[in-house]
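INFO batch 0412 | record 1 of 1 | parsing
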Amino acid sequence: MNKILNKLKFNDQGLIAAIAQDFKTNEVLMLAWMNQESLELTIKTKQAVYYSRSRKKLWVKGEESGNKQIVKSIYTDCDNDVILIKIEQVGGVACHTGKRSCFFKKLENNHWKI
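INFO prediction complete | emitting tokens
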């Protein structure tokens, strides 16, 4: 697995951006960060595991809320510096605010609309 992960470009903090996308609808649900350990666990367990920059620790998505992310496939971009995880969102909610997607604010007339 290290051979595969060595091709990825983690940033200076050892992190890589990870986009979670619904595998059926292609809706972008969230962006989080992964380090090598969380990516290895995600690949091994088929459940999304991220790295919390604020808490400085790993977190399994849905561990507390029950809104798990079951991994269907994993991609990287052309530069190998972003991960795209196609997931099944169990519970229907990806955002910690209770919304399905973290991307619910839209810029309209120079204001963010919800």
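INFO post-check: The mean pLDDT is 95.
INFO record closed
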